[in-house]
Amino acid sequence: MAEICLLGTGGMLPLKDRFLTSLYVEQNGKALLIDCGEGTQVAMGMHGLKMSRVEALLITHDHADHITGLPGLLLSIGNCSRTEPLDIYLPESCVNAVKSLMSVCGYLPYEVVLHTLSYSEGESFKIERIDPMLTISTLPLQHSTKCIGYSLEFYRKPVFDPQKAKALNIPVQLWKKLHAGESVTLEDGTVITQEQVTGEQRAPLKITYTTDTRPLDTIVGFAENADLFICEGMYGDKEKKQSMEEKGHMLMQDACELAKRANAKRLWLTHYSPAEKEPALFAEELKAIFPEVEVSVDGMKLTL
Amino acid sequence: MAEICLLGTGGMLPLKDRFLTSLYVEQNGKALLIDCGEGTQVAMGMHGLKMSRVEALLITHDHADHITGLPGLLLSIGNCSRTEPLDIYLPESCVNAVKSLMSVCGYLPYEVVLHTLSYSEGESFKIERIDPMLTISTLPLQHSTKCIGYSLEFYRKPVFDPQKAKALNIPVQLWKKLHAGESVTLEDGTVITQEQVTGEQRAPLKITYTTDTRPLDTIVGFAENADLFICEGMYGDKEKKQSMEEKGHMLMQDACELAKRANAKRLWLTHYSPAEKEPALFAEELKAIFPEVEVSVDGMKLTL
Fold first, then answer.
1. Predicted model pTM
2. Domains and CATH numbers, chain A
3. Which value does ipTM take for this structure?
């Protein structure tokens, strides 16, 4: 189970009612953020999220609207008495910018560990600090600077089958332990393992996040069957398609087409241009392409 | 005449309803900001202030809560098509931090000119870009890092005296020109200058801004007769006095004592600790020390 909050939906610059694009994902009280523009820590406060739960940050690219909230966030995490190291995963091309921002923090009571990612397809890693079973894979995007998309895959336990457990005469008080993955020994000495009492393995819970980028065929495979696909859509006005692609961005309609081709379960749009005052005006047109689209607003939450 | 807006009143970290301490001062459509923490540009938008009017920034010190809004602000000013240079005045000790922050901006369509200030008493300068008659003086404060206070003095024209103008037979349509400082020539060839039609020179309009600092005797002279004195007051709980001074801060009561000794016309408190949830609870006690104190809130405006 993952708790998700889209902290901001704005691109380029924060507006009074639209913070910069950032995603908060929490599992079992441990959270990660993807991107951290100016004001991300304020948005966390507005939506009742706790700084002390943040264990890791993933950075997409080095543009200011995705990273300038970093020093404030790191200092505020320090104010929560953190002493454990905190992980930042970022494209190699972001390291200088992130180090420059961190230089204004002064003393932090914990270590920040930078994990650099190459700009190659198919790279994946685990964030042990959050969940050893959480796998994160990356996709090189196409923007005006090197930018990375992330897919998070949370392991899901296979469904428990009470019929199988009953047939094996396993006392009910042992079911929870077994479902959690531990083996149990019955009174007669028989050892029972999880596989004996569960159904088929389930696909992991998948969240895919791609901004800033022009629409790419590779995003389709990357977001395939995602439970939640979060993708940029700068404008809804189709006349802007060419200029957006030239700038390494896409339209809301492009994001819907990608979600449809990827067979995503739902799509949240984000990273609207500050000039796009009412993205919701395009909702009907977008739902005609991909019915499960949300023209997201700041603070949208979901439990998956 | 100056338009003033206190963009934020928070110290250390921004809260959802309290942005970081920053002051906006505008004269004749040209503005300066003192300090620029995370979210300053959002606060400007919330209070209807235009990015395009900002001509200069004054920085007090290099702590993150006073400077991390800089890259976003500079980029947003760039988005307003600025091509004229922009001035930043800052203690020499801040240069590295400000350059680090600026390094994440990438391209700006205008030049940023850094003017370094020493940490010595009695330094003063003019910001020609705003008003050649605006004089700014500095005061070294005592904080955990080198920090500077600023006093802004806006020249005020002497009051026009219609009796003098009438006695000299000056046509009414020339009065405005004369009051603005230009000389005029009458039909008979007589040249009249401003001094002949005005009263005594008036004291400049003075705004003094001191945060972060422990209370200092030197602040009294620096804020003397200020039309508006803006000063930090981290807490209202007098038990915190010693710990505050050790950290280079002061209480709201200290600020009131300074305002009283300085004979300031009014005092606005700012830079409250995030732990000080309701500064207004101390209003009565503070007014007993200095009746013209305002326990400021974000967005307070004044025309002087």
1. 0.92
2. 3-156+203-303 (3.60.15.10), 162-197 (no CATH)
3. 0.90
